[in-house]
Amino acid sequence: MAKKSLIQREKKRKKLEQKYHLIRRSSKKEISKVQSLSDKWEIHGRLQSLPRNSAPTRLHRRCFSTGRPRANFRDFGLSGHILREMVQACLLPGATRSSW
């Protein structure tokens, strides 16, 4: 189980990313449309003035049940070992164990 503080920090980052998403997207579109370099620098400065934790690259996908930050499957939102346990217990519909 991940520390509660790390999970809360990740939730805070997610909320900040959603708050500044439109501002960030419009600024990036504006940069691509502007021709002069000085205007691009000005818009880039506005982008840099946004909080660092509002950048989408700072978000980290975590396991839904344990909060584990590594080995996550996007389709299920679970880490590898939890996914394996749930498949073996037949708790995930449509997921089967591989055999060859």
UniProtKB/TrEMBL annotation:
Its main location: plastid. It comes from the Eukaryota. Keywords: Chloroplast, Plastid, Ribonucleoprotein, Ribosomal protein, RNA-binding, rRNA-binding. It holds the Pfam family Ribosomal_S14. It is found in: Plastid, Chloroplast. The keyword Plastid applies. One of its GO terms (cellular component) is chloroplast. One of its GO terms (biological process) is translation. Part of the 30S ribosomal subunit. Belongs to the universal ribosomal protein uS14 family. Binds 16S rRNA, required for the assembly of 30S particles. NCBIfam families: PRK08881.1. PANTHER family: 30S RIBOSOMAL PROTEIN S14 (PTHR19836), SMALL RIBOSOMAL SUBUNIT PROTEIN US14M (PTHR19836:SF19). This is Small ribosomal subunit protein uS14c. It comes from Primula sinensis. The gene is rps14.
